[in-house]
Amino acid sequence: MNDVTMKRLARKLRKSPRWRGSDDDGLSLPRVDDARPMDTHEQEELVRSFKKAEAELSRLWRGVFAGFLCCFSAFLIYSIYQQAIYPWELRYHAYFMEYIDSHVVIFADCMAVLACSLAIVGLLQSSQHRQWIWYSCVVGTILSFFWLYYMIRMPKFRWDIIWLPFAPLSGAGICLYVDHLLKESSEEVCKLQSYMYAYKAN
Q: According to a count of CB atoms within 10 Å of the terminal CB, is the N or C end of the chain lower?
């Protein structure tokens, strides 16, 4: 990466509200004179600031989507409890009363909880454990075929429960996409670090 690109990156990050503030808050960037290239220390400070920003954003977004999945898992656990104690009282379960045994419905909901749990583990454990998200996608795909099979058998297709076959699979797919984007962002920062050059004064 040439000197002009490094200086442009520094200027863009300094303009961001996230990095404005006093020099004592630990978030200020090295001040670069446009008339000269950055030396090695200034480059290291810039890369460290990018790494810190990327790590914070990664934790934030992983936590947000993991939280959504946790809420959906809690809803599924409530659904399992209701089906076990008061069979077929929930409308989205009652549609299947004539086609599936109650225990099968409970098992399907348990598999949905498993799919969400696998996605949460894979998302929070960073890209090194991405295979857990893939496992979640596999479980979600099986559930999709299971619910769709019985929905198609109904006299009338129930669009109000279309979320039932696709929610776990969609959650896993979104987590996989978020993990991919965050991994790309991390790779860009590492690539920037590899472009650092040793400045020699004239």
A: C
